[in-house]
Amino acid sequence: MTPDSYVLPRPERERRAAAYEWLLTAAPDRQTAISEWRSPGVALLTAGVEWDAVRVPYDVLHPGFDRATTLQELVQRLGELKVGGSAFCDPYRPFMYLLVPPRTDKDWPRDLASARVECLGGTQPYVHHVGVPRLESVAPPGPFWLTPPDVIPQRHADPEHLYTLLHALLHAAPQQQADTPQVIA
Question: Which end of the chain, C or N, has fewer beta carbons within 10 A?
């Protein structure tokens, strides 16, 4: 079975173990990744093995989002945008990472790069390494999961839907700004 069609086993402990195994397939060294998850809580994994990651600045998801954006606001926004799949955040940068099928980076359009939206994958000549939080990290401080792969049946976001959505958000933003009255003091 492919990871995106795999239904996670129950109970929760088995689902968590299966999700860790899935993530660890992207580790250059399993023991190092496990050690990194213990401390500092983020393991460096290789994109393009089981997933690619679409990195999206918070302000692309909503013009008012920044480092102070709360977990609840991010969860609500993902729901409004109908984005499925596994997603985690790095509130310090602030970026959201949405996991998509491997090799998505090969065909990902580059027109969103000016807005700092990128698909990080393993297609040669570039191989990206991504800091992935431990599955128990589901809230700040530090990087955290919004939708960990052990609580959802679909581990990957749909890359076509995601691209269409991000493209629409970026092209709607200038229009929204033009419609907003400017106050000059």
Answer: C
